[in-house]
Amino acid sequence: MSLRNEILEVSRELLIERGFGKLSMRNIAKRANVTATSIYLHFDNKDDLLLALIDQSIEHLKEKLLAEIDSSKDLIRQLEDLARCYIQFALDHPKEYEIIYMVRPEEMPEYPKEKFQQIRSAYELLAEIIDKGRQKDLIDVENPVISAYTLWAQLHGVVSVILNKRLDTRIPQKEFIDQAIEHVIQGFIIQKTPA
């Protein structure tokens, strides 16, 4: 593992343990067993390090989502696959997932404008599929971007319940995920009335 990646890994752990306000280059250096100076060879400051962590996590999530898209499947199935992939990413990579969402806006350094496209691109994948479904009269939405964001927010809620260990112990996790995805997706589908 490169020194840069090792610094990012240690920083991710410390950020989750202590929060951004208590994260310091000195603590990172101590945990990584390097000098603080060596961290500054890779990152300008703590804000730069945080942005790198967020970028890395978003890029990893986006790679997983892109790999999941199978255009040979119908659009509804593609949405289900992306929803399942999003949840599975969070369960398989909880630290990376937390990094994307845990830092409060008032603690965030100013995010460069060119980076916002990268953040948006994850749910814009959903928006594209929703829009295709709308054009084919499979999905009943007015604004695919708002609908994609709504879908993302619902999935985020499902993930949060599981990661924060708030799932009712009487409910099997797999069934909870399966039903949550089904209910969320069904909310978008145009229901055909029998003739």
TrEMBL record:
SUPFAM superfamilies, per the entry: Homeodomain-like, Tetracyclin repressor-like, C-terminal domain
Keyword set, alphabetical order: DNA-binding, Transcription, Transcription regulation
Residue ranges annotated for the HTH tetR-type domain, each copy included: 1-61
Residues annotated to bind DNA: 24-43
Gene3D superfamilies linked to this entry: Tetracycline Repressor, domain 2 (1.10.357.10)
TM annotation in the entry: none
PANTHER family registered for this protein in UniProt: HTH-TYPE TRANSCRIPTIONAL REGULATOR RUTR, TETR-FAMILY FAMILY TRANSCRIPTIONAL REGULATOR
Protein name: TetR/AcrR family transcriptional regulator
